[in-house]
Specification:
The protein is α/β, with parallel strands linked by helices. The protein contains 18 helices and 14 strands. Helix 9 packs across helix 12.
């Protein structure tokens, strides 16, 4: 790779051993990818915490030093390096637990202490403790064309598609190295030509609510895998939640990291712009039959109608979504055999507290949680066998990760399940 003078200096160790190791990692990474150079980034989102058991044990084996965890697992260095402050604006994504609801999640106090120690450590490094899979909902909103280095599939696809910023799906190592250097390999979705649409998806039916957009994403992801779909024929302009759920679903059933919606997303003012004048490699149609297929596949693990857990907030809920839930839930009571957990960023929960939404949820017997979700943290109410979710992504992952059944439906159907303890949803 061709390196700029400042990159050569870091590689030579002029800014210390940690940045040198970070640059060595990025050079190896870029060469493996076939990148010709690095590109500057001033926006990094990653997960570097030590709440998982093997990371906690690794930190304990090194005297509790989180520098050891960062060195080994973010810089590929068995030597414990002193980690300097991050060089560019960097945010921490979701972690493994909610420290305020550790008891409900079955998390022991020692794990909470590791979590608190980790927050203090990354705060000293200058990392923004957003602790969410949706950093764009709580202040990290890169602009069109901005080069980023983000982890988290649902965040990446939103960043590329809705915001028009540029990122590949980075890993713990490349994101950690980017934090220390402000560099990332210039390849993939950083390049103009790689951001053009490949598959045309014509909508033959109206896609209405958030659940509909989740189903559409689930079908599109399976159909195009890791290519770039271009949606045409969208009627009502989708809001943040619908685009968020579409991308999260498409990146789960397939490997979609970018999509275009003609007339909606910033690089698809027209169909011609979305494809860059090229002919699509395939033209697909999404109608009632395809919607039915997606619904049946995403609900393939659902068998028993008695629901003991309702999980909302994958990706993390926005304040608008919490408000919508409270309209459905106020004055109601969660069934005695069911639990309701809703996940949101910590900053959003503070607004929900002030608006009285948290009290409405708690008065009904539910919990508004932060910092994690059931799949990432592997946290469920004790004895959970059957879950109901309004996220196709969570319906895809939760059964595989936690071995439970999952029903997917609208938010209203999920709240009804929480109140009655029964799944009564179905495709309309």
């Amino acid at each position: 790779m061709r390196l700029a003078d400042d990159e050569k200096a870091m590689l030579d160790g002029s800014e210390g051993p940690a940045r040198q190791k970070a640059m060595e990692l990025l050079v190896r990474y870029g060469e493996a990818l076939g990148a010709e150079r690095l590109v500057d980034t001033r926006n990094v989102c990653g997960t570097m915490g030590a709440t998982m058991p093997f990371l906690r044990d690794y930190a304990a084996a090194h005297g509790g030093r989180l520098d050891a965890v960062f060195s080994e697992f973010s810089l590929d260095s068995p030597e414990v390096l002193e980690i300097p402050k991050v060089k560019v604006y960097s945010c921490h994504l979701q972690q493994g637990l909610d420290p305020e609801h550790a008891a409900q999640q079955g998390i022991p106090p020692q794990a909470v202490q590791v979590y608190r120690d980790g927050e203090a450590y990354f705060g000293r490094l200058g990392v923004q403790l957003m602790n969410t899979c949706t950093p764009y909902q709580v202040g990290n909103v890169p602009v069109k064309g901005e080069h980023c280095a983000w982890m988290e599939s649902s965040a990446v696809v939103y960043c590329n598609s809705v915001l028009g910023a540029r990122t590949n799906t980075e890993g713990r190592e490349s994101a950690g190295a980017a934090m220390l250097t402000g560099k990332i390999p210039y390849w993939g979705y950083h390049l103009d030509g790689n951001r053009l649409g490949t598959h045309l998806v014509e909508l033959a039916i109206e896609v209405k609510d958030t659940a509909d957009w989740g189903l559409l994403g689930y079908w599109v992801g399976e159909a195009v895998q890791d290519r770039i779909p271009v949606l045409s024929g969208v009627g009502e302009i989708p809001n943040l939640a619908r685009l968020k759920h579409f991308g999260a679903s498409a990146s789960s059933s397939g490997g979609v990291e970018m999509y275009h919606v003609v007339g909606v997303t910033p690089e698809a003012r027209t169909r011609e712009e979305a494809f860059g004048g090229r002919k699509p490699c395939a033209a697909l149609r999404y109608g009632a039959a395809e919607r039915r297929i997606a619904y049946e596949r995403v609900n393939s693990t659902g068998r028993d109608r008695d629901v003991d857990y309702v999980m909302l907030g994958c990706p993390h809920y926005s304040l608008e979504q919490i408000w919508e839930v409270c309209q459905l839930l106020e004055g109601q009571r969660i069934h005695g055999n069911c639990s309701l957990w809703i996940f949101t960023p910590w900053a959003t929960k503070q607004l929900a507290d002030r608006n009285g939404y948290t009290r409405i949820i708690e008065d009904a017997g539910g919990f508004l949680m932060t910092d994690t979700c059931s799949s990432v943290g592997r946290v469920l109410p004790k004895g959970t066998k059957v879950a109901a979710v309004d996220s196709a992504k969570q319906a895809h992952y939760l059964p595989a990760i936690m071995g439970v059944q999952a029903w997917f439906g609208t938010t209203a159907e999920c709240i009804q399940a929480a109140i009655t303890g029964r799944w009564q949803g179905g495709l309309q």
